[in-house]
């Protein structure tokens, strides 16, 4: 016969949630969301991820022709830096994928800001390979099975990703 550990039940269901509420920790909110979504289909998960990505890029200029970016004064948008900063702080890993064209547009934001924001937040920065100029490859130009690799001056290749 197996004995019931009342201490662990008490901690798990009463003390830990009360402590998280007292600290105003996002723990309970995340826990409830994960509990509701843990059995979602891959399609539902992909749709949710796509919506989050759209929200992140909401302030940036979007076009189907990258050459249009050459004529835009601020292609990243005035509020995009804050959106990306918030997203990085909430992330466990960031994948850089802006491609080589960003160098031609002189987008200083992606290369310098994303690298330093990830470093300060302690979030690993990865890419799907590099172009000849050293920029992270754009997902349209790599195979779906391409492994992630470290990207940026602060990243090391030995962290297990």
Short summary of the structure?
This protein has 161 residues and is mainly alpha-helical. The chain has helices at 6-23, 27-37, 42-56, 80-90, 101-105, 108-121; strands at residues 94-96, 125-127, 149-150.
Q: What's the helix-strand series?
A: HHHHEHHEE
Beginning-to-end CA distance, first to last residue = 43 Å
Radius of gyration: 20 Å
Average pLDDT level: 80
- The count of DSSP E runs of length 2 or more, i.e. the number of strands, is 3
Q: What is the helix fraction of residues, given as a range?
A: 40-55%
Strand proportion, as a percent range, falls in under 5%
What would the principal axes of the Cα set say about the shape? elongated
Write the layout of secondary structure elements.
Layout: H1 6-23, H2 27-37, H3 42-56, H4 80-90, E1 94-96, H5 101-105, H6 108-121, E2 125-127, E3 149-150
Parallel strand pairs: 1-2
Antiparallel strand pairs: 2-3
Characterization of the model:
The chain has 161 residues and is mostly helical. It folds into 2 domains: 1-39, no CATH class; 42-150, no CATH class. Helices cover 46% and strands 5% of the residues. It is built from 6 helices and 3 strands, in the order ααααβααββ. A 3-stranded mixed sheet has the order 1-2-3, covered by helices on one side. Helix 4 (80-90) packs parallel to helix 6. The model is unreliable at 157-161 (pLDDT under 50).
